[in-house]
Amino acid sequence: MRALLQRVDSARVLVDGEVVGEVTGEGLLALVGVTHDDGAEQVAHVARKIAHLRILRGERSVLDAGADVLVVSQFTLYGDVRRGRRPTWSAAAPGDVAQPLVDAVVSALRELGVTVATGVFGADMRVELTNDGPTTILVDTAAG
Asked: Which of 51, 61, 68, 73 has the fewest CB atoms found within 10 Å of its own CB?
């Protein structure tokens, strides 16, 4: 599982022109991708990292700051561009595998006390953000 975390001053996701999830003020945008062998262990690891990483200003975590997180599913985090000019998506889990795991990350964050907004799984989404820093961190459970 991969989560690309972006420290933001604000972020929102739109589907068909309608805002479906947003963070106003300091927080994180978490783009979450799932691969074939991910499960409960990876979900817990990613949720803990999102909640506890001290990447907000003043070396604070989301929990320290009482900040919100916007979680958006993103299979393209598993795009492979090592060959040719077109990415391959074979490392990304199919939707019926990925959706429950992205939902589980959201649930795990909420259980940790984080306020979470979301995009719509599988929808054509537009994500708008004001990146603070910019600060962008990749959490990859395969990397340890």
From this structure: 61
Query: What domains can be seen in the chain, in order of their start residue?
Result: 2-143 (3.50.80.10)
For residues 28 and 8, what is the distance between their CA atoms, to the nearest angstrom?
6
3-state secondary structure 35-58: ECCCCHHHHHHHHHHHHHCCCECC
- Residue closest to 69 by CA, chosen among 10, 139, 128: 10
Give the H/E segment covering residue 27: strand 18-33
The first and second tokens of residue 92, run together, are 């990304």
pLDDT digits (tens, 9 = 90+) for 52-79: 999 999 999 999 999 999 999 999 999 9
- Cβ-based neighbour number of residue 82 at 10 Å: 6
Reported residue count of the chain is: 144
- Which residues form the catalytic set? 74-76
List, in sequence order, the alpha helices (H) in the chain.
40-52, 62-65, 95-111
